[in-house]
Amino acid sequence: MPVLERIQALVDSHPVVLFMKGTAEYPMCGFSAKAIRALEAAGAQQIHVVNVLEDAEVRANLPRFSNWPTFPQLFLHGELIGGSDVIGELAESGELARILREATQP
């Protein structure tokens, strides 16, 4: 399957997807660590994490797919929310917890 189709399938099949460097348990950059901590603090329980360091094709093509140049990248229901700074701002305002609840409710 072409990489852009694989990315689309990932964001379509999980309500919350974080493309990051490393894993939730072992983030491999400060921005990814900040993002995963903010998501966990906001009550995210069903985060599908994609380690872009393990898939060079995804790492190379995700910025073209999302039109967002950096990692991490958070998608909720297939829609790009943003990167580490956006996630942090949403967390500080309390909006992150609200949109995560909405994204994961049946």
Automatic annotation (TrEMBL):
Molecular function per GO: 2 iron, 2 sulfur cluster binding; disulfide oxidoreductase activity; metal ion binding
InterPro entries: Glutaredoxin (IPR002109), GRX_PICOT-like (IPR033658), Monothiol_GRX (IPR014434), Monothiol_GRX-rel (IPR004480), Thioredoxin-like_sf (IPR036249)
Presence of keyword Magnesium: no
Domain Glutaredoxin positions: 16-81
Keywords of the record: 2Fe-2S, Iron, Iron-sulfur, Metal-binding, Redox-active center
Binding site for [2Fe-2S] cluster: C29
Cross-referenced Pfam families: Glutaredoxin
The keyword Iron is assigned to this record: yes
Ligand binding (glutathione): K21, R59, F71, S84, D85
Annotated PANTHER family: GLUTAREDOXIN FAMILY MEMBER, MONOTHIOL GLUTAREDOXIN-S14, CHLOROPLASTIC
Family according to the record: Belongs to the glutaredoxin family. Monothiol subfamily.
Protein name: Glutaredoxin
Native organism: Lysobacter defluvii IMMIB APB-9 = DSM 18482
Taxonomic lineage of the native organism: Bacteria, Pseudomonadati, Pseudomonadota, Gammaproteobacteria, Lysobacterales
